[in-house]
Amino acid sequence: MPAQLIINSRPYETRVALLEDGRLAELYIERHNFQDILGNIYKGKVVRVLPGIQAAFIDIGIERTGFLGIQDIASHQNQSRIEDFIYEGQEIVVQVIKAPTKGKGARLTTNLAIAGRRLVLMPYNKNIGVSKKIKEKEERERLKKIATEIRPEKDMGVIVRTISKGMTKEKLKQEMDFLYKLWNDIKEKSKRYSAPSIIHREPSIILKSIRDLFTRDVDKLIIDSLDGYREILGFINDFAPGLRYSIELYRGEKPIFEKYGIEGKINTVFKRKVPLKSGGFIVIEQTEALTAIDVNSGSYVGENDLEETALNINLEAVKEIAHQVRLRNISGLIVIDFIDMEKKSNRDKVFTALKEAFSRDKSKTNIQYISSLGLVEMTRERTRLDLKEVLAEECPYCSGRGLVKSKESISYEIFRELERRKNSLGNEKIHVLLNPAVEEFIKEYKKKYVEEIEERIGKKVVFVPKKEMHIEEYEIVN
Q1: Domain spans of the chain?
Q2: Residue of 164, 176, 240 whose CA lies nearest to 207
Q3: Are the C-beta atoms of 370 and 350 separated by less than 8 Å?
Q4: Is the pLDDT of residue 400 over 70?
Q5: 3-class SS at 210?
Q6: Mean pLDDT of 321-339
Q7: pLDDT above 90 for 463
Q8: Residue 402 has pLDDT above 70, yes or no
Q9: Do the bridges between strand 55-59 and strand 41-50 make them parallel or antiparallel, or are there none, so unpaired?
Q10: Beta bridge partners of 66
Q11: Domain 1-35+206-267, what architecture?
């Protein structure tokens, strides 16, 4: 089954779901009060240089300073020191290559990359690269030749993205001209703006889904917002007019994420234990240092011998592990504890299957061979927050030992539930019983969205705080 992009867009939140073979594979969330800054370009000010770790901290105008290591400075050479390039008080143009987390600031680079749908222009890098997912040698050589010919300056680099496969030189040249114009605009702003300030903002999550996710593997994009639909059509008319027939405005009565079976799948990201069809299961433990994934045979006993049982469970677990890592956006160091296998041929099968399972992952991975203890160490590139960090906050009931859904996530759940049940709620006034902390949060921060929901469902909504209710618990009554 071809992949699909399903977009649920509301003024308070936009959610983009990638379905592969009908199953939720990736989920991206952007909220009005938290814009993803990955890819943004800033004119920043150096606030501190640390020769001991060859890094500097840069004020880019957000709450936490960004981190710039010497390896991310475009002009640095081997054996050079950061103090040869950077000094306190200096104004410098940087790009965010890793989004900030709850404990760390954004990671920055001066080696800028201007991304388009088909190409990436690198003004300070001379290299010409072609996506590794384009396997055919002749096509790789053709695209590399085109990229070399159309780059606007000889000392600029270009990355040819996967979607460029089969594209003509004229199409690629058209996009390159746009990226070069964008780069000149960025240069001009960097001269005029004072630090700290933003000089280039990445497009909205809706347009990024077109640029980065709408590949040849994706058959259709379906969105439930008329404004978002128009925004998409305006974008593709300039860059990919052929896609307009693959864009659909959803007008169904049932909420779009419920229609496509997505809503119920989102809560699975909070589960430690994930069952396998055979009766086995995997356990996922996320810590600050690493993520540990344990494979367990559970109730599966196999038919022949222990070695075959271990192989079958491990092969089944491989697919679920790759799925959960992508869905939850787990990154950093990941250690997988497979069931022990004596035969090297079986370990080879599991290792090959693991690499194949991650082949559709857009984040870079580095997977090490299975050790004699049955462990696999792997790393996965971190660029954005993992899904739990977006959807959850520290639990007030257990002093940080666990997680509950954030008050914002619960608020939006209530809004969506009110929309879903609008035809079954008979009275003109609807009462929502909920935890006082959530009621206070809605009253203080989400009042305008309540008014929009009331207009959408044609009923008055009254929130009634109940101290005895768990923070995640609520009830909608007539």
Answers
A1: 1-35+206-267, 41-111, 271-380, 406-477
A2: 240
A3: yes
A4: no
A5: helix
A6: 94
A7: yes
A8: yes
A9: antiparallel
A10: 58
A11: 2-Layer Sandwich (3.30)
Query: CA angle, 326 as apex, 353 and 387 as ends, to 5°?
Result: 155
At 82-140, the pLDDT tens digits run: 888 889 999 999 999 988 877 788 999 999 999 998 999 999 988 999 998 888 999 99
Which of 467, 463, 421 has its CA nearest to residue 444?
463
Q: Which residues contact 48 (CB under 8 A, 6 or more apart)?
A: 56, 57, 65, 88
Q: How many CB atoms lie within 10 A of CB 280?
A: 22
* 8 Å CB contact between 367 and 392: no
Q: What is the DSSP letter of 152?
A: S
Cβ density class 171-191: b for 16+ within 10 Å, e for less = ebeebbebbbeebeebeebbe
| DSSP H/E element including 93 | strand 91-98
Which fold, 406-477? Hypothetical Protein Ychn; Chain: A, (3.40.1260)
Longest CA–CA separation in the chain, Å: 74
Which DSSP string corresponds to 218-277? EEEEEES-HHHHHHHHHHHHHH-GGGGGGEEE---SS-HHHHTT-HHHHGGGG-SEEE-T
| pLDDT single digits (tens) 269-310 | 888 999 999 889 999 998 888 999 999 988 776 667 788 888
Residue 430, H or E segment:
strand 429-434
Place of tokens 């996965």: 380
Taking each continuous run of H as one helix and of E as one strand, the counts in the chain are 12, 26
CATH number given to 271-380: 3.40.630
Rounded-to-integer distance, Cα 353 and Cα 376, Å: 13
CA distance 114 to 119: 9
- Give the CA radius of gyration of the chain: 25
Cβ atoms of residues 108 and 72 within 8 Å:
yes
Strand, coil or helix: what is 311? helix
- CATH number for the domain formed by residue range(s) 41-111: 2.40.50.140
Rounded-to-integer distance, Cα 204 and Cα 164, Å: 22
365, β-bridge pairs:
380
Same fold, 41-111 and 271-380: no
Side-chain half-sphere exposure of 443, counting CA atoms within 13 A: 12
Token pair belonging to 128: 């010409």
Check: CB of residue 80 under 8 Å from CB of residue 102: no
CA atoms lying within 13 Å on the CB side of residue 85: 21
DSSP strand pairing (291-296 vs 332-337): parallel
